């Protein structure tokens, strides 16, 4: 993908506090599967500095990592709950009909009748399918299932827009 979004670092997870007494840190992953976060690197800290993962493992249900230059719980705690980013170029290209959530955030949402619903503020994982959380239009929040061909008719990353089959009556009926 070209354009301003292509060079922005992408949030793939966050540090989640120290683990143990040797400076390991807990890692919360936004990737699927969660351990895929360790496939991307180098990680970038909030201040843009590179973070090198020396080792990682599962510790029960959580992921933990040993980071270069961090050897005490206090150093691990200093990372706080800050985001873990990677360069966009580190991620594999998405396949047709599949999108990275971060590419959808901020896109303008219109229905087939060209009514502007607002911008994608977030996506919600429900298990059955993802849901667009659209804000800034005529209503505070509109939730639209992100189901290609059924509700989502077009995603145009170049034009920063999504076209949905979501009539205004469906919004009015929900109030």
Descriptors:
mainly beta; 6-stranded mixed β-sheet; Elongation Factor Tu (Ef-tu), domain 3; SH3 type barrels; 175 residues
Describe this structure in words.
The chain is mostly beta strands and 175 residues long. The protein is elongated and about 60 Å long. The two termini are 38 Å apart. It has two domains: 7-89, RimM (Elongation Factor Tu (Ef-tu), domain 3), CATH 2.40.30; 101-174, Roll (SH3 type barrels), CATH 2.30.30.240. It is 9% helix and 41% strand. A hairpin with a 5-residue loop joins strand 3 and strand 4. It has three helices and 13 strands, in the order ββββββαβαββββββα. Strands 11-10-9-8-13-12 form a six-stranded mixed β-sheet, with no helix packed on it.
Summarize the structure.
With 175 residues, this protein is mainly β.
Low-confidence stretches: none
User: What's the total count of β strands?
Assistant: 13
Number of helices: 3
Strand order of the largest sheet: 11-10-9-8-13-12
| Helical residue percent band | under 10%
Q: Report the CATH architecture of the largest domain.
A: Beta Barrel
What is the typical, i.e. mean, pLDDT?
Answer: 89
- List the helices and strands in order: EEEEEEHEHEEEEEEH
